[in-house]
Amino acid sequence: MQSSFWKAGHPPTLFASFLYFDVSFMVWVLLGPLGVQISQTLSLSAAEKGLMVATPVLAGALLRVVMGLMVDRLGPKLTGVIGQILVIAALGVAWLIQLSALWQVMLLALFLGVAGASFAVALPLASRWYPPEHQGTALGIAGAGNSGTVFAALFAPSLAAWYGWNSVFGLALIPLGIAFIAFIIMAKDSPDAPPPKSLKEYLAVLKAGDAWWFMFFYSVTFGGFVGLASSLTIYFNDVYGLGAVEAGYFTAACVFLGSVMRPVGGYLADRIGGIRSLSIMYAIAAFFLIIVSFGLPNAWLALIVFGCAMQALGMGNGAVFQLVPQRFRREIGVMTGLVGMSGGIGGFYLASSLGLSKQWFGDYQAGFLVFAMLAIIAFLGLTGVKKRWRTTWGAAHMTAAKV
Hints:
The protein is mostly helical and 403 residues long. 81% of the residues lie in helices and 0% in strands. It has one domain (11-189, 202-391): Growth Hormone, Chain: A, CATH 1.20.1250.
């Protein structure tokens, strides 16, 4: 990595953004890795399981807009502090009262959405410290906090087997508390923050067609990533008969591959351009999702195919956020919220559609095929706008970054 990158910004804030994002994502998808054990205790149907793991994703998607607005009004650090306090309080209450009904789990799921909305805080907090030529790398590092989903899949099922799934909510308070203290000490708002805008000015960004394109593109890349992260433990358990703990390990491997590739995707986008790298990732993701939709003979082969799809989606996440700050640098707070919201909605759609596909048709093929088609549509859409982007806001005389 170029030495100029470390001199250009504020590394303590970048690390704080990553850590906050990491533990927040860990608890955001917590119901997914615990899904097998929770569904056995509460006797949930396939559709109920899909809805349970998808609800935090949808709540996080919608709250990202709220958090994005708060970032521009209150600053990313204060907004992050407020969000962390809400999540810690919700998990603490859930642990103390011991959840015993689906409606209680769903209520917790809504509060876990606040953790998912951390995306709209961590990325602007990091982004505002770095110049255009380093946006992909900076946001790739901060965005690598989605690796928190790995820890959820890796440890939550085992902890639930040892202590009960309700106890996992209390144990999650330990890393959340450590990250909260580190965030307060290390994070610092950039002096280059844009002035707060009126609500009318916030909504004005939706008049730009490019905003809608970015929202759609991220709904596929991040939606695919978080939708699979939330669903694969249940998938491996249902399709291949793996136990909850073993299914969690398989899910963790897939999610790890996708997470580590996000900063790689951002770095690659800085080097060859976000449009080119994103186009490649859509094609790869669609290819592997189509393969997995037809069913694979064993869990290990499925692990390989899902891993390849997750790597493409993870790199795509980094590539999208190499492009967004080039087009909407002054509106990065609200755009992060809107684009992040769309990513969450994509994840909600995928997770819930897989559950419905299983309940209605007896397998998961329809859910995977439809999402693969969305990736193909995104590829075609990117092909259609790339010339205009490269000759307007992405032209060499407009930005130092490669678009």
